[in-house]
Amino acid sequence: MKLQMVDLHGQYLNIKPEVDAGIRQVIETSAFINGPQVKEFAENLKAYMGSKYVITCGNGTDALQIALMALDLKPGDEVIVPAFTYVASAEVIGLLGLIPVMVDVDYATFNVTVSNLEKALSPKTKAIIPVHLFGQSCDMEPIMQFAKQHGIYVIEDNAQAIGAVYT
């Protein structure tokens, strides 16, 4: 029996004229980086998120790398990241000479918990990257309290939960 999980081609066919027109417009104008479509996307995202600022990146990996670089961490510093995530969440940590420390997630939510963060904490821990998954937010209030108590940074990876609301 063949089980089809996601029909990406079928989804494309449903919106083919819009997708093809958008691609054609970008190619014809050669505005591949920071062109009008990117600026329009940023403005729409700001409005959608109710945010004052948006910085567009080519992908979530770049966004995480920029965020980590902004913290001026030193090689050998540890960054806690969930074991259940896309590889980029841990990849950028290693690329910068930092040490990824993987923690288990809660099996009901697939998100990190403070109890698991506590187990991974060491004197070298400088940051946590909670990854919001499947459209649901991590329980950020206790995570932020934990980070404040221990003087560590928090970088939220929201690539898979844009628009999710933390309540």
UniProtKB/TrEMBL annotation:
<keyword id="KW-0032">Aminotransferase</keyword>
<dbReference type="InterPro" id="IPR015421">
    <property type="entry name" value="PyrdxlP-dep_Trfase_major"/>
</dbReference>
<dbReference type="GO" id="GO:0000271">
    <property type="term" value="P:polysaccharide biosynthetic process"/>
</dbReference>
<protein>
    <submittedName>
        <fullName>Aminotransferase class I/II-fold pyridoxal phosphate-dependent enzyme</fullName>
    </submittedName>
</protein>
<dbReference type="InterPro" id="IPR000653">
    <property type="entry name" value="DegT/StrS_aminotransferase"/>
</dbReference>
<dbReference type="Pfam" id="PF01041">
    <property type="entry name" value="DegT_DnrJ_EryC1"/>
</dbReference>
<dbReference type="GO" id="GO:0008483">
    <property type="term" value="F:transaminase activity"/>
</dbReference>
<dbReference type="GO" id="GO:0030170">
    <property type="term" value="F:pyridoxal phosphate binding"/>
</dbReference>
<keyword id="KW-0808">Transferase</keyword>
<dbReference type="InterPro" id="IPR015424">
    <property type="entry name" value="PyrdxlP-dep_Trfase"/>
</dbReference>
